[in-house]
Amino acid sequence: MRWSQTFIPTMKEVPSEAEVPSHQLMLRAGLIRQLMAGAYTYLPLGYRSVRKVSEIVREEMDRAGAIELFMPALQPIEIFERTGRKEAFGNVLFNFEVKRGDRKLHFALGPTHEEVITDLMAKHISSYRQLPVTLYQIQTKFRNEERPRFGVLRTSEFIMKDAYSFGSSLEQLNAAYDAMYNAYCRIFERCGLKYLPVEAESGPIGGDASHEFMVPASNGEDFVVHCPTCSYAANQERAETGRTATLVDPVQAAAAPVTVPTPNAGSIEQVSRLLKADPQSFIKTLIYKADGKPVAVLLRGDHSANEGKVRRATGAASVELADEATILKVTNAPTGFAGPIGLLCPYVVDHDVAKIPVGIVGANAKDAHLTGVIPGTHFEIPRTFDLRNAETGDPCPKCAGALQMVHGIEVGHVFKLGTKYSVSMDARFVDAQEQSHPIIMGCYGIGVTRVVASIVETCHDANGIIWPVNVAPYTVQIIPLNVTDTEVMNVTNKIYGELTAAGIDVLMDDRDQRPGFKFKDADLIGIPLRITVGGKGLAEGITEVKWRASADTHKVSIAETVGFVKNLIDQAR
RNA sequence: CGGGAUGUAGCUCAGCUUGGCUAGAGCGCUACGUUCGGGACGUAGAGGCCGCAGGUUCAAAUCCUGUCAUCCCGACCA
Is residue A78 part of a domain? Predict the structure, then answer.
């Protein structure tokens, strides 16, 4: 492609609305333009990368035995009512009414396609002999993001690959899951991304039923907890800590706790400032409702509760922070003054609370706290649990190492669904004994456009993008330094023609611009290989070949240039 | 949805506090000339409903009210 014949609007200056590197660079390099918050046009260059990633995804899905189909984005609201996800999605689901004749129809735009595909399978699968099968599509998804941000990393409309497996047994589910997991590793590998498969919250199935694929990036919205010594990695929701139970014996002849006034100081931060005490010496008492019943969670003051862990520790199906009225009922005080002593509900205690020698707690009375509280002495600790989010330095649950936290961008998710949707959509099969069962499902997603943004986010330098070879919009950029020089253009056209004929994507910068201008643009758009053809080189009979990622320039004879470049590409793939 | 910020040329921004000439700069764009191996220079130009609506005033980019949009922090994210 000749630059003058395509559409690559590059920008020298950083648009003021863009904060993170991927957003800035994608705008500046002419990859995307914003239509409104959360919706972007992919310009020719950006769309080429989207297609390269899609093609890699497609090849690996096919290799893993998944079958491609294409489902409607426009869906009747009824199917979301059947699975209860109209409520579960809430505002995130685009749903609206349209008139058709004198009728009103209620539609949704698909945020994902479990309902549609399960409905399809329900109608066509009847026997275990038809299973297993895994289907996928690459399609635009719609989610009414409360807060679109970071350019293309979080949008209301995005391209996603979603796959769904259907099986008659857990063995079939596990096989499909493993096939997808391995395919994902190959996909991200081929895209040139550094990625981390992490254990994620797995819902009702439990075990290792869900993994997220995260790209470590400082602007990532998620936290990944991982152990550098072993391979343990999990998201913050899920991450266990290797801490163990600590029980303390009651101290004999301990002084009683002292009540101190703390007017209008209901947060740890306020009280610690008022009493000039470190938050680590506080025992934070959070009132939750576990299946509707109040239960208190005791944590060290500087820690944050993990609701999944609280749910498991209390054995409840659902857990939420209690409302003001419940707090008043069990603590006789407004929010901010809860403590374990004299509390009118049961409590669970985090491991680290028992290690606080002498702590500060809420007094269960308005505007008062207790100091000099000894855990295990002034309130009982029959047992301790892991109730908080993992933090840097916590012991690894799998080895002797220490955990680290990194930010990450979620680019993929594999999930063992079980029978949630097949039950509600009535997708069943009969086994060899003529017994009917719901189909066992898995779902597997990759955010294709988010993959592209993640690549830009992690592969760039001060001058612009540095595309990995397999996902670059073009593989080679050839720059004739003087387009009015016949000799230069003859050589350029010859190399361009031969590389194109060899099936290599080449972009020729045929604009009548000064060399510096073109070099800057080339660095910005980040095509991996650059061939420079200029008068000085031609005088020596050479062209210059350079990787975008490296400062080294190879001087290659004109005749050998095409072969040399083909060779480099082959090695890089 | 809570908190904060910003809307002036295609892009980046000044002007607004203290209302008053024809609303500015740099980059980009057009024409001509000189240049031509890392975002050249000169000359001459084009380009603005100062986000939108209402109000105050003799007079509003500037003050007031409302509204819309975008960005950031937080909450949310099967």
Answer: no
